Records
---
Amino acid sequence: MCILFVYTNPNPQPNTFRSIIIANRDEYYARPAQQLSKVEDVIGGRDLEPKREGGMWLGVSVKKTENFNFRFGALLNISGDHKQGLKGRGFIVVNYLESENTADKYMNSLTSSEDELNGYNFVAVEVSKEKIGTHYYSNISKSYIRCDDVPVLGFGNTLIDMPLQKVVYGCDKFNDVINEFNNVSNRDVLLEKLLELLKSNERHLPDAELEKRQPTWYTDLSCIFVEIDRAGYGSRTHSIILIDYDWNMEFYEDTMKEPIDIENPTWLRNVIKASL
């Protein structure tokens, strides 16, 4: 389970942010991962699980091309049926960010892919001097959707047209935070409020869709911040990405130090900045 919220504004006012992206990575605590790092023009954490090494759940490219100044990609699994032994999906984010394909071209290639993969949502954000756009694809519905005219979006572990209750709630709170604190002079408070949202342990029930997909753990999974200590699973990484009016990008990652002490985790902050 993971959760992602995206704000985009193609015509921001001076001293505000043109894009704000926040996410939680929910994963087994024992699964090894590399902390936020930059490899050439690609920034993000990396999977270190054997046979999944190098895959990414979320990342950005700051390589400037004729089509864009910045690209973001994120993968969220579709909960429910899960087949063992299939190819990992982390390459989807990596291949997108390392290529120079537009999201249109890349997602159209996903629709024609014959790879047998467990269900996923793939979300991309592209930013250029002329435009900004959010793109969505799921291999379950085989649907590719452009969301250019929607400034605030939320994504979870279901199809985009059947959001979990915590995603609906999170979108509203995310929008409230942006409306109140979207100014570079409020950066510290903005970061604090965004992190508070990502750490929210309020349960959002009833949720018939979540209960159907996760009958055993749906109560625990109804929170934005997931903690299932008895399963060794939870929200172990927070990501916050800011792009301001002057094309400065900041990528903040708060992640649990490995090996993770479930009862008393140590949180580490990494920050990478770039001029777009």
Note: The chain has six helices and 14 strands.
---
Amino acid sequence: MPVPITRTLRLSAVQKDAATLSAVESIGGRRVYKFRASDGDFDRYSDRLSVKGWRVDGYNANGVVLFNHDDGAEAASAGAEPQLPIGKGRVYVEGDALMVDVEFDDEDEFAKRVERKVAKGILNAVSVRYLMLPGQYRQNERGGYDCDAQELLEVSIVTIPGNARAVRAKSFEDEGEDVVERIAARVVELLDARAEAKSTDDEEPETEEAAEPASETEVPPAESPKADEEEDDKAKGFNASDAAKSFVEAFKGYIRGV
């Protein structure tokens, strides 16, 4: 009779690492990191897991996030102080992947150090430990297992990925400052070009008027619409650089959720 199977990097628990970490969301001042934790492709253990087969209710009821799968058992057996969880997670299936939202404990110094390394891209992956359910797996052509149903046990931030696709995607948080500065620089260029073009247009009628004086019978030009005059008045004294700086500060505040 088939029995449950678990794997680890030590061959006792399955640990698949995140293929992707997407943009950081700022929700009510909280920083939530969204990871792509697993998919239906082969991992480095030659296993394939059905995305629809994930059982996550148990995990979500107590969604702790560990570091390198350290659940404290080894330290406790040695009489040392165990490593506590560094945050909490929420897992769910989205499209063709198992996703996990991770929020670090901002009152724990070690957790804050881990989060900083994640934000800088030094730590790039999460890993999941799970249990293959009895009767729901079979050996495949690569010597691993194809599994139709598996229960998620825990999620960890890890240093060494076990999945070939465990590469963190660049998020807006990673390069947000640079992106905003580039946008602002481009805004300045466009505004300066617009101002220069407007200045050229304003000068052209004067040149033509000097070259060809208007005849006595010429009908005077119609007055510009009042709306245009108001627009011109607003444009007077407009400084593109100052506007760009204001934009940068406002946009930085927006992406940080403040």
Note: Residues 8-15, 166-170, 254-258 have pLDDT under 50 and may be disordered.
---
Amino acid sequence: MSASQSPAYVVTDNQLKHYKEQGFLIVHRLYTPEECDEIIARAEGMVDGTVPMYKGNALYMEPEAVERGLVTEEKPSSEYLFKIGHEMHLTDPVFRYYAMHEKIADVLNALIGPDIKCIQSMYIDKPRNLGIGQPYHQDSHYLKTVPDTVIGVWIACDDVDVANGCLHVIPGSQGSKIYPHDVPVDVLQRKYFQEVHAARTMSEVPCILPKGSAVFFPGTMLHRSGNNVTEDRQRRAYVLHYADAHSEPGRAYSVPNPHLLVRGRQYPGCI
């Protein structure tokens, strides 16, 4: 981690227009390749036990790898990792640092305002020739604020494309209602996921990203990821969710203001 201050990232008028109309914004070089490597190394340390697994987090192995007997939940392997989540931004110093990255805060300041909370973090892997994609869904089905100000930030820690399972979005769907989330059509997706079946007939766009680039999108945006069908490439991503600190929680919390303040200030009775 570097403490050096880089120039503020300025979101242009054209980028804001695209985000409002299409519902997503791609920002290149959000992290450097070296910063991505630090995130990957930290996650691999959690898997092999050399880095502590702090409270609020757990390891999940790729279900298909478990089914084939290639790995077990009791003896995890970074080769077959599916996910680490969901509170590294609160408890792990490296993941917290990158959740509070100045460039992320600069972009979020333009998209949702100056008072920013991080409400969830996930490190998601997709093993080579094995990783199963997540079907179409909306993050605001799971993460609720009042009003709904949830925004996802999907950061590629590898070069990502269609072959190794990049993110796909449905432009314009950010204005949609929250759809019913049902049992996935694909049986391989049923252990962890739910699916918005209506999205299967909609036109999608793949988000092909170089390492360190990111997609920003609101919680109402319909999005999915593909399978990793490559023989020799992982598909690792740091996925974060944020919200306007003015928002009230969609459920009761046991402690006030439980989420990580990234920039600005927090407010009584809010997230």
Note: The first helix runs from residue 13 to 22.
---
Amino acid sequence: MTKPWTYLSLKAVFQYMDINKRLEINFHCPALRSAESSVPLNLQSLTLTKRKIVANDVCYEVESKSQRIKSILDGRKEVRVEILKLHDLGVIPECLKISTRNLDSGDLDLEEVLPSINRSSFPLKELRVNIAKTRNFEMYFGFTQILVPFVTDYDREKELIRRILYDRKSPNIVLERVSLSSDTTVALIQNWRDNQKEIGTVLTIQNGFRILPIFSPYVDELMNVLNGSIAFLNESVLQNRMDRRCISFPFNQTSELVLYSIRDGPNGKRRTKLEVMPIRSTGIGTLTDLFIELLILLSFIFFMLIVHRLTAVAMDSIGKTTLAYFR
């Protein structure tokens, strides 16, 4: 006759079991729920909303508040999550505090979310927060290494974004679906110069250039107003998926400000970064770099000639058609 497993034996098994298998057992086997819940829950990602729970990319749809809590969080003493997206405060038991490295508070007020987060989690690696829903958000700059601020309506609330960008205490910033005008970028760089931002300070913009453009009013204004120049990143700072070509702005005696493009975003998407780097992180480039730049220049000239020729042909055709119509 097979002996039943002891409570301690069950805990040992749950400790090494696949997370999603554990959650399935928790759902369907009430008799084992106590033993399973007593083992720390370690997740790569956890999303909590009103209608569903997504744990490590597996979705569990639920019907009521009590079912949500009992199904995954109730009775647990320790939950550790690498990426936590908390979009509904009603799903977390009052006694539970979750440990995490990356927090997304959605459209919730961050002040109401923080009591559910273990204090040992701070400073976070990354915090994504709706700053329009959080009063006095400047108070929380020290809570994270990287801040991802967003607003519900950028056109109406863009001044909040500017307040963060210009605040001398702000951490590294990542902007989602927000494009900065040349005037705003010029003001930001001048602000960084005035506040002598430290080496390693970075502003990341999700909507990055495919390649950093040479010919554009945006780049021209930045280079003219801020004395910038086209340069190339040296091997000492070059990373994987980083374009060598960049724009360098003088900053101070020990550092320079560099605008460059890198493919390090979600799903390998390209992002544009403005970063304070050690002096001489950029240079004039190798012969290969200069040859590539020459090819880009020639391609641009050839493209403009084609556009000019097609425009002339189209205008000539319209003129002939018009003349024929009135004869």
Note: Residues 179-285 form one domain.
